[in-house]
Amino acid sequence: MDKNSPEGLRKGALSPWLALANSLASNAPIAVTALYFVGLAGLVGGTLTLVVILAWLIYLAMTIVTYEWSKVIASAYSWAAIMKAGYNSSGISFFSAWTYLYDYVTASSGFGVLGLTSFAYLIFPQFTQEYPWFWIPVSLIIIGETTFLMYEGIRPTSKYNLITGLIEISFLIITSMVLIALNFHKLTLEPLSLSPINGNALLLLTSMIFGISTFGGTNGALGVAEETKDPKKNIPKALIMTLTLVGVAIILNSYAQEISYGVGKMFNYANLPDPGIIIYSSTLGIPIAIIYAALVFNSFNSSTIGFAVSGIRMIYGMARDGALPKIFYKVNKKGVPEVPTLLAGLLNAALVLSTGFLFGPLNAALFLITSSVVFTYLNHMLASIGLIKYHYKNRTFNLVKHLLIPMITVLALGAAIVTSLYPAPPPPFVYGVYISIAFIVVIIGLYFYIKKKNPHIANKFGDYSL
Question: Distances from the Cα of 324 to the Cαs of 16, 144, 465, in angstroms?
Fold first, then answer.
């Protein structure tokens, strides 16, 4: 079908800021401070801020690679198209499409839906102890509400996510500066050093698998490239703007929370049910803590939408190439892929309920988040190597942008993958590794099946880009 067909996604529907909204929603910065800070503090204690800064620098290298690709590729299934352009391999493109789809689905259900219900369990412990099943209707309501919003169109959803996302960023920056000012006498460089963990560099390295994920989702604008005005100009802008805004807010807040609570007490911070709310209420007052909690709830909700939107576009792009039934390619009158949107809601419900019953909401959230991390990092590594190949082949090679930065990304993410798999994580997280391996086997089998039955579909997969 012609790329300007009115039957497809609505071209030019989003401005750079509205494209940025999908990245902000996916990352959910204020939710990150509520969930990821607890996990990181449990690993590295008072070195939390150093880990967050290093994670941001690594994600900056990853984003520069994505930035360079977004000047060349603009597609609903951007990651598949990136791999095809970099390797001229439909097999690698197929692998990337399915593994990124896995990432989008598990992030939407794990971080978005279950993250929200887990946060509710932490701040209302007495209520949830009395009604331990309460996470089920809450999860289903969230899934129904977010599916409805996505069905209504990309523009209204993006506008809402942009407004609330910028409110989150502003709240984090302003309150962080106030916390720092109120604790001016405690200012120290210790959170930027290894001294809180007695110089244990290996522990720092091990924590990076979780630390880098702090900025996950900030490349979410790629998923709405086809719907963005002048995407090869505006998506790169959106990527850099998002990482800058999110980086300032999260890094500043990590330091502010540390000096407020006490650098030497950060391992204890990890054992608190809701440390962010405790710090905000004790230092800035209960009304500010209530605003913080409300923004966290909304942030998880927005993340459910942000990741699902990217997953829906991935399904749409795959169906356009014939790798999925054509019914997944149909859009409604608002330019929304109809069946993929409904499927996203059903998949969220299935994953949330099945893993929630097995592990409980919090462990289910962590299980789903960690089960896809290796896929995310592996795809960024492949994109980095592909960028080197692409620009060398096309004689547009730049030593820093197309070799040095991609290699930094490959080495950093490679180390993170190794430390995440060895030694093997404890149950239930190790089960995520087994599922990932099984998923790879299924992808390979499916690709060769399609290649045998419909070689023309396999060969052209990943070719589409504006």
Answer: 30, 25, 18
Residue 440 has pLDDT above 80, yes or no: yes
Q: What are the DSSP E strand ranges found in 116-218? A: none
Q: Is the pLDDT of residue 34 over 50?
A: yes
Angle between helices 115-123 and 361-371 (to 10 degrees): 150
Closest to 366 measured CA to CA, from 118, 129, 179: 118
pLDDT for 128 equals: 79
- CA torsion sign for 12, 224, 147, 274 is negative
**0.85 surpassed by pTM:** yes
> Alpha helix locations (H) across 28-89?
29-44, 48-70, 78-87
d(CA 28, CA 435): 26
Phi, psi of 337 (to 5 degrees): -60, 110
CA angle 16, 20, 26 (to 5 degrees): 160
Q: Answer for the pair 228, 234: CB distance below 8 angstroms, yes or no.
A: yes
Per-residue pLDDT reduced to its tens digit, 114-170:
999 999 988 888 887 888 899 999 999 999 999 999 999 999 999 999 999 999 999
Contact 28, 217 (CB under 8 A): yes
pLDDT of 81-125, one tens digit each? 999 999 999 999 999 999 999 999 999 999 999 999 999 988 888
Give, in degrees to the nearest 5, the angle at Cα 17 between 12 and 20.
95
Residue with tokens 């006498």: 185
Grouping H, G, I as helix, E, B as strand and the rest as coil, residue 22 is helix
Structural Rg of the chain based on CA atoms: 21
Residue 309 φ/ψ region, left for φ over 0, alpha for ψ in the -120 to 50 degree band, beta for the rest: alpha
Evaluate if residue 417 carries a pLDDT over 90. Answer: no
Domain 16-460 superfamily per CATH: Amino acid/polyamine transporter I (1.20.1740.10)
Q: pLDDT digits over 317-327, tens only?
A: 999 999 999 99
Sign of CA dihedral 291, 298, 140, 442: negative
Nearest-5° Cα angle at 336, 333 to 341: 130
Q: Which two tokens stand for residue 266?
A: 């950060």
- What digits encode the pLDDT tens for the residues 10-22? 999 999 999 999 9
Is the pLDDT at 75 greater than 70? The verdict is: yes
Place of tokens 């440390």: 275
Burial of 434 (0-12, 13-18, 19+ CB in 10 A): exposed
What whole-number distance in Å separates Cα of residue 105 and Cα of residue 357? 18
Domain boundaries, the chain: 16-460
| Cβ pair 283, 295 in contact under 8 A | no
Paired strand residues for 228: 14
